[in-house]
Write a structure and sequence with these properties.
about 200 residues; alpha/beta; 7-stranded mixed β-sheet; two-stranded antiparallel ribbon; 7 helices; 9 strands; about 20% strand; globular
Length: about 200
Amino acid sequence: MTHTPLPVILLAAGASTRMRGRDKLMEDIGGQPLLRRQAQLALCLGPVTVALPPAPHPRYTALSGLEVTALPISDAAEGMGASLRGAFAVLPPKTPAAMVMLADMPKVQAADLTRLAAAVDLNSETLIWRAATEDGTPGHPIIFAAALFDQLRQLSGDDGGRAVVRGAAGRVQLVPLPGQRARLDLDTPEDWAAWRTQQREK
């Protein structure tokens, strides 16, 4: 892809229900909340829209001072479909492509985002560029071409865009990232404890 800024939709409206009272997006990563880290990474590509629970919520504070667009999702409890529907609805007209990034993946690096963005060829038949593990397992983030935006604006429930990805079968390009970081998300206190132990042992 050219150096044209690529809009990023950062999904951060989930309830962290499996964390049993803690908020995984507020977990400390290198001295800052995970959500702030992810938003800063996304800003290296272009304008960032962060799908968030309705205010007031601590996640808004975590984004303080960053030039991101905070998008409250009033029906966030519906699932990821509500966040995607709302975020794609506010993209500027004629946006050629947009990246969807999960906020709970602490191993994703700025270089991974730029590698994925560099794979985009809007003159090709490809409609989706999707990060994968180094052994080829599909993961996140995912870049969608504008031809799919209408479908994404009509999502509901907790589908998370899976139906859109399935519908584009044969027009999806996988972009391998190092290790397993395209798949590593931390959803429970045990996940976080194990990951932190692993980090200390490196």
